[in-house]
């Protein structure tokens, strides 16, 4: 099957790029141009015609990439035409007339590249991250992942486990031959080393995931403290409804911001108070959950009415900034207990000290995003595979101590499989290859 799709952004543009991949690519180009295929990887200006009537659709650049030296590993081409909607639709309509041609599914070109061994799963994911990057730090992380250091590391760890497994498999296949004590010690040492390296990678404060998904900030606090006004101020637009009526915000209102290149998802939540209204009670429950899952809490309170008992004290215990609003109405000194917390005194009405609050937020962001490690976990999928790998290695270590090699081999296989699933490489035959390469089995 040959697939095609618009690879540039939708809508009117100066140039649109239509990508084609599959065994019928050459046929499509010949039918559209009424000419033989041009030289590979050379941009040529050609007339693109209606297949049945030879009526001119547009003049554009065609680049031919014969497989396997292409992005997908198959025969592939790019057609660059003028970016009008009618032009793009006309070209796509003509391609659809060619037998065994269909529109590509989302991500199918990259999926083909992965299936044909052109890229591994981590690189495929990093390409998706690069396309969706909204801030500089997200772009840099995606590029770092594309360079392949993480893939290389996970493959190295996997190779070590395959090596250990080859020793264990040999012992199972030839039980009459005892493994030397030094080999058993080496198996334990190597498996423990892999386990410790994975644990170190897991101890990353989830920096990679925070960068990819966005730093989560929850604005929480009692009713009528100015939470929605703060969201609007930080966003520089009317995101949330502001009213003097207590309990206006009942659901979570979210907006995405770019603060000095850092991706931020900021949420305005329902005011926390005792309420008999069922809908408001659900909103308050959502607020507390949002606060619990946030990377940073902005706890907004009214300067005239600060009560550190109950929920307020709980919210301020970890990863929080106490934002004391309505300072313009304050006539007395603040409660001395305030000094115990990371706080800032502001007035949204007079736009007072908002810059100090933003500075505190930026400082918190920078601390969270500090990472000197080149090996990053950017998705929950990676983390779960690594956690399961460690679990299997712990089980193997226990069975290895008891010299229960049959069951231990299965734990090693499962650990190896978990690492393989991160980069999309799961091949049992590699174990056999490792055995035959390292042991003179056919004696």
Structure in words:
46% of the residues lie in helices and 17% in strands. The chain has 443 residues and is α/β, with parallel strands linked by helices. The chain folds into three domains: 2-115, Gyrase A, domain 2 (2-Layer Sandwich), CATH 3.30.1360; 166-204 and 379-438, no CATH class; 211-368, Rossmann fold (3-Layer(aba) Sandwich). The strands form two sheets. Strands 3-4-5-2-1-6 form a six-stranded mixed beta sheet. A six-stranded mixed beta sheet has the order 8-9-7-10-11-12, sandwiched between helices. Helix 6 (149-173) packs antiparallel against helix 7 (181-202), helix 6 packs antiparallel against helix 14 (405-423) and helix 6 packs across helix 15. It starts with a strand and ends in a 5-residue tail after the last helix.
Strand content bin: 15-25%
- Fourth-tier CATH superfamily name of the largest domain: P-loop containing nucleotide triphosphate hydrolases
Number of strands: 12
- Domain count, please report it: 3
Annotation field: number of helices: 15
CATH class of the largest domain: Alpha Beta
Distance between the termini: 49 Å
Question: Which fold name fills CATH's third level, the topology of the largest domain?
Answer: Rossmann fold
Largest sheet descriptor:
6 strands, mixed
- What multimeric state do the chains show? single chain
Which runs of at least 5 residues are low in confidence (pLDDT < 50)?
A: 241-248, 428-443
What is the percent of helical residues?
A: 40-55%
CATH architecture type of the largest domain: 3-Layer(aba) Sandwich
Helix vs. strand class: alpha/beta
């Amino acid at each position: 099957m040959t697939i095609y799709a618009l690879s540039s952004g939708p809508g009117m543009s100066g140039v649109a790029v239509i990508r084609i991949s599959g065994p019928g690519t050459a046929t499509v180009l010949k039918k559209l141009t009424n000419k033989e295929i041009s030289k590979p990887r050379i941009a040529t200006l050609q007339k693109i015609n209606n297949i049945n009537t030879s009526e001119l659709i547009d003049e554009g650049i065609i680049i031919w990439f014969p497989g396997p030296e292409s992005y997908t590993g198959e025969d592939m081409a790019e057609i660059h035409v003028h970016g009008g909607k009618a032009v793009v639709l006309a070209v796509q309509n003509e391609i659809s007339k060619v037998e065994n041609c269909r529109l590509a599914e989302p991500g199918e070109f990259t999926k083909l590249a992965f299936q044909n061994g052109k890229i591994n799963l981590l690189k495929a994911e990093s390409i998706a991250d690069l396309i969706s990057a909204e801030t500089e730090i997200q772009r840099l992380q995606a590029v770092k992942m594309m360079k392949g250091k993480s893939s290389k590391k996970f493959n190295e760890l996997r190779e070590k486990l395959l090596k250990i497994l080859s020793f264990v498999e040999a012992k199972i296949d030839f039980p009459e031959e005892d493994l030397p004590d030094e080999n058993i010690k080496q198996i334990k040492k190597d498996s423990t080393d892999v386990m410790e390296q994975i644990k170190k990678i897991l101890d990353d404060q989830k920096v990679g995931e925070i960068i990819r998904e966005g730093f989560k900030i929850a604005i929480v606090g009692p009713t009528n403290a100015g939470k929605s006004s703060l969201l609007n101020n930080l966003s520089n637009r009317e995101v949330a409804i502001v009213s003097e009526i207590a309990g206006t915000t009942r659901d979570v209102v979210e907006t995405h911001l770019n603060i000095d290149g850092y991706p931020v998802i900021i949420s305005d939540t329902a005011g926390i108070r005792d309420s008999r209204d069922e809908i408001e009670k659900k909103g308050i429950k959502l607020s507390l959950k949002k606060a619990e899952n946030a990377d940073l809490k902005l706890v907004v309170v009214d300067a005239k009415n600060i009560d550190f008992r109950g929920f307020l004290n709980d919210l301020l215990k970890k990863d929080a900034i106490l934002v004391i609003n309505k300072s313009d109405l304050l006539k007395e000194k603040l409660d001395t207990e305030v000094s115990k917390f990371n706080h800032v005194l502001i007035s949204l009405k007079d736009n007072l000290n908002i810059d100090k609050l933003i500075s505190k937020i930026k400082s918190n962001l920078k601390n969270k995003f500090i990472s000197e490690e080149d090996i990053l976990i950017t998705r929950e999928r990676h983390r779960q595979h690594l956690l399961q790998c460690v679990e299997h290695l712990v089980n193997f270590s226990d069975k290895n101590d008891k010299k229960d090699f049959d069951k231990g081999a299965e734990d090693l296989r499962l650990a190896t499989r978990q690492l393989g699933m991160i980069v999309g490489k799961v091949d049992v035959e590699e174990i056999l290859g490792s055995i035959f390469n390292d042991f003179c089995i056919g004696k």
